[in-house]
Amino acid sequence: MNIKEYENGSFLKPLASIKYLFKKPHTLRYPYEEKPVPDRFRGLHINDVDKCIGCGNCRDICPCAAITMVDPSDIHPIDKNKVGANPVRPKIDYGRCSFCALCVEMCPTGSLKMSKDLIYVSPDADSFNWVPLVEQGREEGYTQSDEITPLMLEAEKMEELEPDVRKKTFEEIVKGFTREQALKEAMRCLGCGICMQGCPAHMKIPEYIQAIFDEDNKRSVKYMLEDNVLPGICGRICTHRCQDACVYNYRGEPVLIMWLKRYATDQLESYKDVEIEKMPPTGKKVAIIGGGPSGLSCAYHLTTMGHSVTIFEKGQRAGGALANGIPMYRLPIYELDKEIKHIEDMGVEIRLNTEVGKDVSFEELLENYDAVYIGVGLSFGRYIKLKGEEHPDVIQAIKFLRQVKVEGRREIARRVIVIGGGNVAMDVARTVVRLQQMAYGGEGTMVQTVSLEDWDIMPASKEEIDGALEEGVIFNPGWGPNQVLLDENGKIRGLEVKKVKYVFDENHRFNPAFYEDQKKVLEGDYIVEAVGQMYDLSFIPKELLDKLEFTPRRKIKVDEYGETTIPGVFAGGDLVETSRGDAISAIANGHRAAIGIDRYLRSKK
Amino acid sequence: MMDLVDRIKEIEGVKVTVQRHNRVFVDVDKDKVIDTLYYMKHVLGITQLSFMNVVDRIDEGKFEIFYVLYERESKVNVIVRIWIDRDNPVIETADKIYPPAHNWEREIAEMFGVKVLGNEDAGKPFILENWKDMPPMRKDFDSVKYCNEHYVFRHSEEENE
What we know:
The complex is a heterodimer of chains A (605) and B (161). Helices cover 28% and strands 16% of the residues of chain A. Chain A contains 19 helices and 20 strands. Chain A is globular. Chain A starts with 44 loop residues before the first strand and ends with a helix. Chain B has helices at 2-9, 33-42, 101-112, 143-150, 157-160, and strands at residues 15-20, 23-27, 48-57, 62-71, 76-85, 90-92, 115-117. In chain B, the strands form 2 sheets. Chain B has a 5-stranded mixed sheet, with helices on one face. A two-stranded parallel sheet of chain B has the order 6-7. The longest helix of chain B is centred in the middle third of the chain and has 12 residues, at 101-112. Chain B starts with a helix and ends with a helix. Chain A binds chain B through residues 62-66, 68, 70, 91, 93, 95-96, 125-126, 128-129, and chain B through 143-144, 147-148, 151-155, 159-160.
């Protein structure tokens, strides 16, 4: 090492320091000058209270327990009814805070930040304790970054059958998680429980994901069964609103809650080892009309409450739309059998092939049972009153799916047109693809859908649309059916469609209008209508039906516990307003009706 | 840089991993670390110890100790890494070779409870005041419990619900 040696110079040498007079000084004249702090300085917090959703992840991660969640209304008004948010915000105790910034890193919305300000002086120790706000006017310092983060923002990839393979078979498309994938995905969950607000059944999602992470699948299924009697089915076909509510949506991909649920239920061959609390028998009897998801849910929960329950199902198999409608490639039949077997093991009696109104009358049920639950669902296809609709080669979707799934229909035309843009239309189109592959090897075949809605407002879920596109289904969005065209032999040769002007009018009501001059012909030999379903309540005698009140949207009017305007008669499933047309909301309102029936039976002496 | 790596590889019993263009990991046996550091300084001419650090590998029951050296000419970080037993964490001091190690060792001793032989200051209070609990950077240190025991809870009760 060379050390510079200073030579002995003249006595004027100290004057050399004059040259520093006009240079930028290395020192600060505090307090006239502020000390500049680095950009990522970690000082007192800033929280954008309007952006914050009160999930409480900052409180849970805090290593000093410095954060509590409080209602900030008195200092900053917040929207308390916001869906996907809790009406609380973090309050930080700076006597404890260690300024580690883990709360900032963890914040799913990015609302919590740190400022460059670290100075706060007060003789009162209790005053070091406040709800951070933007209005406090601190300069922004440390913020989170998506590149370096303790959160795992990307979800696990679910393996699926390739389109070329899956379109030849009714085998289940989704392969399910492996153990490693499930543990990794379960590890991502922050446990804040915001997802529970999205789920109609309010399942205990953080608890069962934690149990999956602990590799205790029995405990996990126990938590699921408390609110949802068909967890394995919901693990396959649910509309997963929980995932839409997941806080990861703000920064990355949501936790794949649905596939985790499927993983846990798949690990158990049956649920008989799962501990389920059952109350002592009450001696009360309940009749349930319809063995669909809401009926099964209601029956199961009533049984655990100690009542004896009988389900009257007109078909050969309980499950309603799950058994008759949803194609096998989405929901294998053995999964349904497993869950229904569990419900039967719990003591629910299911009378198959028994139609209320034919084999047994509604009055008999009212007489012989203490309460009656109507869960018949929307089991008939809707017609669109199209010209030529009465032709035998025009069929309703629900009938078609039933023929394929239950009756084993395998014959199909070469060119099929599906009317509709919802999930049922996708089910039909993808089922037709499979049948055509089986019948003709896919040669010279064609499936096309036609829907009023354009791509942006198509009601089918994105996964279903993508799946159908990959399997070669042709879409005609934005066209409305006009008439069925027949050839000289009386066979269908196609469907005339006209261009849609708009689907929803200025009042956002469904009121489609068309350009009458823009028409085209879709060629096809067979037409399936998938434009919605309706219910049939003709089994109820007229004098009782008159007593039953309906809502303006033609659903049965019920109170919050599912009781109709006839005392002792409850309704649920797709018949009531709270339904969103999916299995989970039917399960949810079946559960709610079970609680209502229990209250009704216990209050009735 | 590769010259340097080749020369490090000549040391007996080391495992060299080039992690990036300017970062080399040198795994050595814990008994040989002082000899290796001596060699690094006086034979290879790596004169700077930037810092020392510890990672608590609680699942494996080990502490991972790093001596981060800096080679000025080729601008390479040479990181000498040893693993020691977590239940009986003892290392030998390196402050006779690299004097800055003296204070880094004091910090390690305080934060992780590592015993440093030959450094009489290690183990004396350094940054923490009146610390009587487990060394705070160990992963089994429950910071929330410590805070609740030592600090007043200043949020009101109904807020905490």
